[in-house]
Amino acid sequence: MNLTDRVAVITGGAGGIGAALARRFAAEGAAALVLADLDGAAVEAVADAVGPLARGVAVDVTDEEQVRALVADTERRYGRIDVFCANAGVSTGGGVEVDDAGWERSWRVNVLAHVYAARAALPAMLARGSGYLLHTCSAAGVLTAVGDAAYTTTKHAAVGFAEWLSVTYRDQGIRVSALCPQGVDTAMLADGLAAGHLGARVIAASGAVLSPDDVAAAAVAGMAEERFLILPHPDVADYARRRAEDPDGWQSGLRKLVRRLGAADQGAPPPPKPAASP
What keywords is this UniProt entry annotated with (predicted)? Predict the structure, then answer.
């Protein structure tokens, strides 16, 4: 897809990847951008910085009625939605001990928000015979987010839903991409590091943290080629192949990585880094 003269909606638009997508879409010549976020003041500030083609609105993506209203208002103002970027996401930094509220929030933001977006945006796209759904799913959706059970589970579900959409609607003119970055310099990563979350520490230790603008550039390149799986970190494709070919060996490498970080915390010499570790 060429983004020139396109109308796009971007959720999670108050910062990080969402704000970077807005900047890049504007640079690509988008006609209009609607940025949505739970933090209305922050997303309005991002829209103001992007320019007059952008507007920011406060939306809770876990509320289907609000998502429907966002889509209806955008279609009323601009006549159509060419691209819907379901980008909002949350992490927990914990395992099975995370309470039901944490799991429920992860499920609603990381999965159901994508479902709500598709339900709302698809009818008009299908009627026109064209449209693009870009879902930010994370490399955790094709690999594993060490230390975060809910994030891993829901991001796998998000990739699965995006794949289902692509299989079901591509022949009707709908393009779907799952954007799956690994480490990105966002507030989510910074907050995770500040809290000592294992997953955030693994990402930081990998030395492969991209800027949100890098991820947005990869997203635009992937959309231009209409690729389903967009991997801003090229190594993720190799990791996914290793994981598929040797699941036991892959898990062994991850366990060694966790042990190495634990040994470093205790001041002991770490074991050699396994070749199969991300």
Answer: Oxidoreductase
